[in-house]
């Protein structure tokens, strides 16, 4: 058992670069000695070495834990989600020697220290997570479809602090599988919906700044962010962890959501020559994406992600 922070990520070979960027931002604002755990089933040796050397250069420790690929063979996946999303639920049983561990999605940038959040008092809860602003405020029907009453908030699974001893006392992954196969629910965001339903009474809610998602929540929000420097500065001051949620990712030239410049400052050192040339098309691609998004908001509705 250690006083160092335990940070857990789950990726496949397609998400190595975002993971490198997230880890760089983590160590920029947090102490050396932080221990990074990678849960994976098929990351190639070259990428494992790349991650290990990266963490070592940043002053941390790295451990990769291989999860049997067949373990989640029958688990539901859809959209752009893969079975790796379920691996975070294995954290307690794979790290029983630790008191706590913080899971972070790879599409994240950290703006400042998370030490205070990491040391939060669980107050008897199994985990600490941040309510999903879009899911909880703009899509209440999702909560109703999951059978979640008004007393519950719908949390985002991209940042979760696990109470490992208590989780191991009261939870086993097989129980969740049985629940998933018998609950009869349509899980649109499989692991996230499942966490919200299964652990509904055992989640402590954290402030939004620890999982500040980047999507625009309305047309007004979109306009304010584009044209109000004061609004942008206000959001920048609030955010501790920024989560580039959804299909529109900041490493793609067509990205038009918030906090792009911050991400680009980390991304540019990882770009190939061809990708740097593709950035020349960014103004046109962003314009096309913005027009499409505004059209959907005004005339076609929106879907969360």
Topology:
Blueprint: E1 6-10, H1 16-29, E2 35-40, H2 45-58, E3 61-66, H3 91-94, E4 100-104, E5 108-110, H4 115-118, E6 127-131, H5 133-138, H6 140-145, E7 155-163, H7 164-170, H8 173-182, H9 190-198, E8 203-205, E9 212-213, H10 219-227, H11 229-238, E10 241-243, H12 260-267, H13 273-278, H14 282-300
Parallel strand pairs: 1-2, 1-4, 2-3, 6-8, 9-10
Antiparallel strand pairs: 4-7, 5-10, 6-7
Helix pairs in contact: 1-2
Descriptive terms for the model:
305 residues; alpha/beta; Spore Coat Polysaccharide Biosynthesis Protein SpsA, Chain A; three-stranded mixed sheet; 14 helices
CATH class of the domain at 6-211, named: Alpha Beta
Which strand-content bin applies to the residues? 15-25%
Q: Count helical runs.
A: 14
For this structure, what is the CATH homologous superfamily of the domain at 6-211?
Answer: Spore Coat Polysaccharide Biosynthesis Protein SpsA, Chain A
Average pLDDT reading: 87
Kindly report how far apart the N and C termini lie.
36 Å
CATH third-level topology of the domain at 6-211: Spore Coat Polysaccharide Biosynthesis Protein SpsA, Chain A
Helix content: 40-55%
Work out the radius of gyration. Answer: 19 Å
What class, by secondary structure content? alpha/beta
Outline the biggest β-sheet.
Answer: 7 strands, mixed
- Which descriptor suits the 3D outline? globular
- Low-confidence segments, given as residue ranges, are none
Give me the oligomer status.
single chain
CATH level-two architecture of the domain at 6-211 = Alpha-Beta Complex
- What is the string of helix and strand elements? EHEHEHEEHEHHEHHHEEHHEHHH
